[in-house]
Structures are given as structure tokens and as C-alpha cells.
Amino acid sequence: MFTQRWTRRLEELRSRGRLRTLDPAEGVDFCSNDYLGYVATGWPARADDSLAQLRSASAARLLRGHHAVWDEVESRLAAWHGAQSALVMTSGYAVNEGLLSTIIEPGDWVASDGLNHASIIDGLRLSRAERFVYAHGDLNQLADGLARAARDRGADRELFIVTESLFGMDGDLAPLGELAALAERFDACLIVDEAHATGCYGDAGSGLVDALGLRGRVTATVHTGGKALAVCGAYICCSSLLRDALLNRCRHFMFSTALPPSVGVWWNDSLDRVQSDAAGRAALHSSAQRFRAELARNGVQSLGSEYVVPVVIGDDARAAQAADRLRRRGWDIRAIRPPTVPEGTARLRISIHANHAPSLLDAVAAGLADVLKDLAHD
What we know:
With about 375 residues, the chain is an alpha/beta fold. It has helices at about 1-15, 40, 50-55, 60-65, 70-80, 90-105, 120-125, 140-150, 175-185, 210, 240-250, 250-255, 260-275, 280-295, 315-330, 360-375; strands spanning about 30, 85-90, 110-115, 130-135, 160-165, 190-195, 220-225, 235-240, 310-315, 330, 335, 345-350. A seven-stranded mixed beta sheet has the order 2-8-7-6-5-3-4, with helices on both faces. Strands 9-12-11 form a three-stranded antiparallel beta sheet, with helices on one face. It has a two-stranded parallel ribbon with strand order 1-10. The longest helix is centred in the C-terminal third of the chain and has 20 residues, at about 280-295.
């Protein structure tokens, strides 16, 4: 029976240290994606909110869920990124699933980095294309796969490469320039998920693709509001042709109730704030470098190079124990376990924010070292 099946499965997760529960947000935030600190510092009150703006949407945007504010937001997003068009949807998961399952078709070939987000994996499954998963950042393996796919390419077969720019569980950057060169060499389309990079790179914060001058060399980029921008929803930057295709064929857009217009008002406020927040971006990257240096000084190894700082523990239960001990010290750091990360790589994922004080970062680095030493002697 259903109850017996799931009782057994949940008990198995518990025995392996992988049972997840909903825990309240307590202590200093070192686990959310509020990279620029906008959630922590709050938003100024608005004097011009009206009841009309605050009403909820009650239909998809193609019915009666569209509002003029979304035309304004999408125009501003496209200009921010130097793209022809932008399209706002309800969530980053919906954007990745919807984009990939719409423009990648059965018979196509798509290469995906081995550490790509679950929403990318699911979108590619829905596409029913031939999937080629290359080892994380392995350009040689990717080039070999592209060469084979190009040799077998028919008239209607498209090739795609899909990657994150900043990997949200590993804290490292994709080699975007090299990926763009491979895409051009083999006439493939490059799609980049900028979820963890949006707001945090470039003079105006529009992300890594733009900071590296690659906008004209990618087919589409995916961005979310729910991380550094601190607003609901997500969006795609792409050509006008691709936007029209999504309006007409993307089921995740066509059959989802729109975000309420009030959220569009907050999008405009967030864009005002983030584009002028060079100081916040500088503080974020400086804090990340300081924290990583303090970890190393305390003998703690970490992955990556950016403001997402993973410390691999390995064993699931020990990672959960370490997180619990850190939270008891007042620091909200969570354990990340399979299937979110590969088997045997359970870790603490520490998210540095622009508003973390230097003294706090030093204390957390030293405290983490103490916790790991204690665990080693248990």
C-alpha cells in the first residue's frame, strides 16, 4: 500500500541521515541566496502603491494576467543585459524547464555540465533530446562529444550546450569564454543559467555573461529574482524571435497564473537598487575573499572561488551534525546532502552576503574549524 511504501522510504532516508525537515530561519543568515543583503536590510516603504497595483493576478498572462508593469519590467531587463528581449515567468525552475523543453526538441543533441541544477536536468528530460552529460567543466570531453554529434548531424538536428555560470553548490565559475568558442566552432547554441550570478558581477550587476562581453555569443540566459535581487519570479534574456516562440509554445508560461502586478512594482525598485549598488558588489566579493582566507588560515579546505563557499564533509550524518552545532552557535548554516550533491560529498554550504561584518566572518571561520575538529574526535 501507499502508506507502507512511503513509511519504508522515509525510514530509509532517516537511517542514512538524509531525512529533510522544515527548520525555521534562526540566527545569522549564512545559507540563503540573499547575496547583496536586500532581504536582510529590507525595502523602503512606497508612497505610490495603489489597490490596483496590489491586486493579485487571476489568469495566465496570455489571458487577463498581463499588466502594463510587466512590459516596463521586461523592457528594463532587456536593456540592462543588452539583449533584444526578456520574458518574466513565475520561478527559476519554471524558466529552466520551460525554456529547455520548448526550444530543444526530440532529435536534437544537448550537452549538459554534470553539476547543473535539477531544473536544467528536468527540462532536458522533458525535451526528449539526446543528452550528453560531461564531467564538470571538462572542455576536452565536451569537445569530443560535440565533434561526434556534429559528424552525425542531420539537416534538422540542432546542437546545444547548457551550463550554469556560477555553480550554486560548488562556488566555482564555468569557463564561459571557452564554452562560447566551442559553441561557435560546432555551430551549437549556448544557454547559460545565471541564477547565482545575477546582480553580483559587472559594472551594473547584470551577471557574468555580460561582464565577460559574451552577450552576443549566447542564445539565451536565465536569471532569477529570488536570489540577489530579493523579488519573486525569474526571466529569460533572448532574441525577439525566441521570446515569441516561448509565448506561443512554452507550456510553463502559457498555463501558469501570472505574478501579481505588485511584484512588478518591486521588480522596478530592485532594478533601481541593484544597478547602482557597486558598493554592495564590491563588499560581497571582498567578504568572500576574506572568509576563504580565514578558512584556509584555520586549516579548513573549501571548494570553488566565489561567495558560495562549500566545505565538504563527505558523510551525510556528520554534515548534518556539523550544521546543527554551528546553528547552536547562532549561525544559520545548513548541510547539503545527496541527491542535491553527488554521493559521498555531503557538505556545508556557506553563503557570504555583502552585509556580513568582517569580525563576524572571522568568528565563523574559526568556529567552523573548531566544530570540524570536535567532530573528528567524536
